[in-house]
Amino acid sequence: MISKRIIPCLDICDGCVVKGINFSNLQIIDDPVSLAHFYNENGADELVFYDITASFEQRTLFYEVLIRTAQEIFIPLTVGGNIRTLEDFDHVLKFGADKVSINTGAIYNPDFIESAARKYGSQCVVLSMDVKRVDGHFRVFQKGGREDTGLDALDWAAYGAEHGAGELVVNSIDTDGVKNGFDLELLSKVCNRVDIPVIASGGAGNMEHFAQLFQKIPGVDAGLAASIFHRREVDIPLLKVFLRDRGIEMRIDNGTAASACIR
Amino acid sequence: MLAIIDYGVGNLFSLSSALDYLGVLHTVTDQPDEIDQADRIILPGVGAFGDAMTHLSERDLIRVLVNQVVRGKPLLGICLGMQMLFERSFEFGEHVGLCFLTGSVVPLRESIPDHFKVPHIGWNRLKFIRQDDPFLQFTQEGDYVYYVHSYYVRDCADSMTAGSDYGTFIPGVVHKDNLFGTQFHPEKSGTVGLRILQAFCSFPI
Predict the structure, then answer these.
(1) Which of A51, A207, B119, B183 has the highest local Cβ count within 10 Å?
(2) Where is it located (chain A) (predicted)?
(3) B111 close to B167: Cβ distance less than 8 angstroms
(4) Residues 6 or more apart from B132 whose CB is under 8 A from it?
(5) What's the pLDDT tens digit per position in B109-159?
(6) Angle, to 10 degrees, between the axis of helix A32-41 and the axis of helix A56-70?
(7) Taking CA B131 as the corner, what is the angle to CA B129 and CA B201, rounded to the nearest 5 degrees?
(8) Can you tell me the ipTM of this complex?
(9) B29 touches chain A (CB under 8 A)
């Protein structure tokens, strides 16, 4: 059987890794290339690079970081942020991405999901959605979680899956940064609606939260987090042993120590 | 020199980076003379089977590959590249493959229970069918490799040397004479994957 995946997410701005609380108050954390390298050696099952820059100049810097990272890490790398056209897809794939995450670009142009899947294959297209409760309903938000699109999150997830998205990242704005655990109610509803892999994001504060996630919602394939990994509050190798001891299948690479002998 | 066949589909960046990391000299090419001069060949691939065969054919690369394989040159197919080594595929119609190995490519969906998601995406453990395969000399049974696919090869018992469970048994590694294949992506499978590429690159010519 396939293992559950543990995925650190690196939000990158001006060539640095940043992470805020509730989508604001950005704090600079680390050099992305060295952080990616650290995760590659320490059990991450894949990495997400998210470009949160706005200007063209900064975009070029992001590409430089991406290419330097992709040259030396050999686990899957997903890239997102500012992906609005097939040309954007071309760029990040050329610079080393394996999968491309689309969010606002798909909200503006829902046909984008299908056209990207036709050109690059579903395995390459990750639909990422930021979700928040509004009057008891789950709604899709855009612009970094500031603006309600009015879209129903469960309908949007189903639309994405039907139109060629290969994976779904579900980020709960309500639980993001709070470190009180994943949004199990939301994730459970999404998993009941779609049959593509679901990646849970937002709210992990400790190892127990990952155990709850995988034990209570078997349909979730991966847990994604940022600051708790970047600040070493949760150590990925220890987390994976913790989860495996609780009966959750984890990839524990016994070859890391021997990787030096390959060169 | 190793030649990675570039026939206009897929992303060759990771594969090329992995070979750089291993110190393997290589070129990314669709030129018959460069492929002819190479001492081993990798056929990568993502996307649809029929399209990929058409791209190979348009570049006159089917004839080139057949010549190289007949001469005994080691050839590694990765993911769709592995599937193309077989006789036929039923992905969007029926398509003829390179016919180097016996077996057919069929949809996963029809062979596995409903609660298994398709595509098969993620890290899965290898089970060895043949313990003595030199292609697996640096790999251990139970090592995890990274799969992304919706179709798989069936009826390939004479070349299958390892695979993984996912509702059915998925052939993950094939090897017969100078022909090698992995359904998973060794260039995305961490240290385990690098070792599999290294084993291919150290197979005697």
Answers:
(1) B183
(2) Cytoplasm
(3) yes
(4) none
(5) 999 999 999 889 999 999 999 999 999 999 999 999 999 999 999 999 999
(6) 30
(7) 100
(8) 0.91
(9) no
The residue behind tokens 């639309």 is A159
The set of catalytic residues of B is: 79, 185, 187
Domains of chain A in sequence order: 5-262 (3.20.20.70)
Provide the residue ranges of all domains of chain B, joining segments of one domain with +.
2-201
Q: What is the DSSP secondary-structure string of A65-82?
A: HHHHHHTT--S-EEEESS
Task: Count Cβ–Cβ pairs < 8 Å, chain A vs chain B.
Answer: 107
Decide if B126 contacts B133 (C-beta within 8 A).
no
* Distance in angstroms (rounded) separating the CA atoms of residues A72 and A35: 12
Q: Quick one: tokens of B87?
A: 């006789």
Judge whether B117 and A195 are in contact, CB under 8 Å. Answer: yes
User: What is the model's pLDDT at position A261?
Assistant: 41
Q: Can you list the alpha helix ranges (DSSP code H) found in A32-110?
A: 32-41, 56-70, 86-94, 104-108
**Three-class secondary structure of residue B136 per DSSP:** helix
Tokens coding B149:
């696919």
pLDDT of residue A54: 66
The pLDDT value recorded for residue B48 is: 83
Q: What is the mean pLDDT of chain A?
A: 90
Chain centroid to CA A159: 19
DSSP state string for B68-95: HHHTT--EEEETHHHHTTSSEE-SSS-E
The overall longest dimension of chain A from CA atoms, in Å, is 57
What span, in angstroms and rounded, lies between the C-alpha atoms of A169 and A129?
6
| Residues facing residue A50 across a β-bridge | A11, A80
3-class DSSP state of B105: strand
What CATH class is the domain B2-201? alpha beta
Q: In this predicted model, what pLDDT tens digit does every residue of A164-177 receive, in sequence order?
A: 999 999 999 999 98
Residue A139: count of CB within 10 angstroms of its CB: 18
Enumerate the residues of chain A whose CB falls inside 8 A of the CB of residue B166: 1-2
Is A124 close to B46, i.e. CB distance below 8 A?
yes
Q: Do residue B194 and residue A71 have CB atoms under 8 angstroms apart?
A: no
Q: What does the block give as tokens for A91? A: 């760029």
**Would you say residue B18 has pLDDT above 80?**
yes
User: Average pLDDT for consecutive 10-residue bins of chain A (263 residues)?
Assistant: 95 81 57 91 95 78 92 94 91 91 96 92 93 97 90 98 96 94 98 96 97 97 94 94 97 58 43
Backbone angles phi, psi at A127, to 5 degrees: -95, 120
Contacts of A115 by beta carbon, 8 Å cutoff, 6+ apart = A86
